[in-house]
Specification:
Layout: H1 2-20, H2 26-37, H3 39-80
Helix pairs in contact: 2-3
Length: about 80
């Protein structure tokens, strides 16, 4: 399951990257890669990953339980009707 999820996430990242950078020239992409390889670029990547991790953790621990409760309430309401 973990490997399948990781594969799906990789596919999504590739699709997102294709869409995000679709209008960039090869020279612009090379320049961006150079930035990402620099010290400040690596910090940027680390902070971006940390931000995504925080958002995902919040979603898992806060949002999903609310969705579950709402679905359960709706199901209970439908049974009463």
């Amino acid at each position: 399951m973990k490997e399948a999820t990781q594969q799906k996430l990789r596919q999504q990242m590739v699709l997102i990257s294709h869409y995000t950078y679709r209008k960039f020239s090869n020279a612009e992409i090379e320049k961006y890669i150079g930035f990402l390889d620099s010290g400040i670029g690596k910090k940027y990547v680390d902070m971006t990953i940390a931000g995504y991790s925080d958002v995902l953790a919040h979603y898992i621990h806060v949002v999903l339980p609310k969705i579950k409760r709402a679905a359960e309430a709706l199901k209970a309401k439908e049974k009463q009707a």
